[in-house]
Amino acid sequence: MNGRSLTITYKVFGNDLSGTFSQLDTRHANFNDGSIFMYIVNHKSDPVKLVINPPSTWRIINGRMEQTDQSEWGFPNWDIMIDTPTEIAPDWGREESQVEGKKYYVMIHSFGDEGGKRAALVRDIEKIVRSETALWGAPEFDSYTFLLHFAADDRSGDGMEHLTSTQIIEPGALAEPGVYESTMGTVAHEFFHVWNVKRLRPIEFGPWDFTRPANTRSLWIAEGLTNYYGHLMMKRAGIWDESRFLRRESETINNIENAPGSRLMSAEESSLAAPFIDRAPHVQLTNLANTSFSYYPKGELLGLVLDLLNRGRTNGKKSLDDVMRRMYDEFYLNSPNATYYLRGRGYRSEEFQRVVSEVAGIDLNDFFTRHVRSVDVPPYDEALSYVGLRLVRQPAREHYSGITVDVWTPGGAIIGNVTNGSR
Ligand SMILES: [Zn+2]
Ligand SMILES: [Zn+2]
């Protein structure tokens, strides 16, 4: 140390191909910066420089490439740097397309057979980009990169949103049945996050305090509405037909309304509990299967119902699309920057309620009290009636349901969970 600079060397272990951690091995270096780059306490807001020295035949790609052989980046702050997942390998492929003046790159690194599906996949991704851009308007970037991995290990699977890129990891090979479909579902979801979550964001989402959990009551909006729109965009892009979309929503209704946790925990409580239940490992056995549920499908259904109530009560003049655009305008585009991190400011859950009510022209306080902050079943019948649909309720027919097996052993099986009320 000479008073001006300090060199710190540290060792990082990375063997997870995911949207959160990093994998550094002989095939590639795929890193999510937050899992490997330390920060200096109280200096996260300072500009930071990243220099990568890859093996000579390996090429670098991330969502902040200004030239193809770039190996140095300057970031305005540490939070923006860790928003830039990076892939370095000798053999990834890249496709390029242009939508309304913006460049889109699809990076594909396959560890299995692609079955000749790459060209179709890139075309379908472009359809999703067009459909989502049609809702929100031109995105606020010059280029965006889809970082796709087909891990072919039946284990690694994830999707993570970033400001100018996304990391998507499929556990199968592209040639395998269902993998193409699953990839497109994740693409539709993650690209929607370009606006909802990355820019239009809950107030707790950035800059982050990594010394404590980022508790928010709004994950059902951030992730749940994104789930709803992910499915809706598959339909708007022409990848799903209408019956496929409706079948998917009815499956979600079936799962959520038959989950015992739906009558014990609200959408806001599920959001708040995320750091403890969302992929959290538990040393002890838990009864969470009976007492909790995921804010993803729950928020998806609240999105469906709010969309249809909006359409119905305004005679088709407004929809959830108008709500999302209003939120984006008010909190991202038109609010003064609240922090060093990003444009605009984050919203509070009450502000979402206010904007939905204003767009629909009705007081939704009762709706939010009963269906968002408490556990009452959403008004599916009223909502679906506005578009000529009906929810058909059928009694359960299976003799044995609700038992999950944790481990099969030579002598029998170990029961993992028994769902309350099942038979
Ligand atoms: Zn790779
Ligand atoms: Zn998401």
Observed structural traits:
423 residues; binds zinc ion; alpha+beta; four-stranded antiparallel sheet
Q: Between the first and last Cα atoms, what is the distance in angstroms?
A: 69 Å
What is the ordering of alpha helices and beta strands?
Answer: EEEEEHEEEHEEEHHHHHHHHHHHEE
**Fraction in helix:** 25-40%
How are strands sequenced across the largest beta sheet? Answer: 7-8-9-11-10
Q: Tally the helices: what do you get?
A: 13
Rg computed from alpha carbons, rounded to a whole number of angstroms: 23 Å
- How many strands in all? 13
Report the structural category: alpha+beta
Described by the principal axes of the CA atoms, the overall outline is: globular
Poorly predicted parts: none
Q: Biggest sheet: strands, sense, closure?
A: 5 strands, mixed
Q: Give the cofactors and ligands.
A: zinc ion
Instruction: Estimate what percentage of residues fall within beta strands.
Output: 15-25%
Mean pLDDT: 95
Please describe the topology of this protein.
Elements: E1 23-24, E2 29-31, E3 48-51, E4 59-62, E5 72-75, H1 78-81, E6 86-89, E7 93-99, E8 102-110, H2 118-136, E9 143-150, E10 158-161, E11 165-170, H3 179-192, H4 219-236, H5 242-257, H6 267-272, H7 274-277, H8 288-291, H9 295-313, H10 320-333, H11 349-360, H12 365-372, H13 380-385, E12 403-409, E13 412-418
Parallel strand pairs: 8-9, 9-11
Antiparallel strand pairs: 1-2, 2-6, 3-5, 4-6, 7-8, 10-11, 12-13
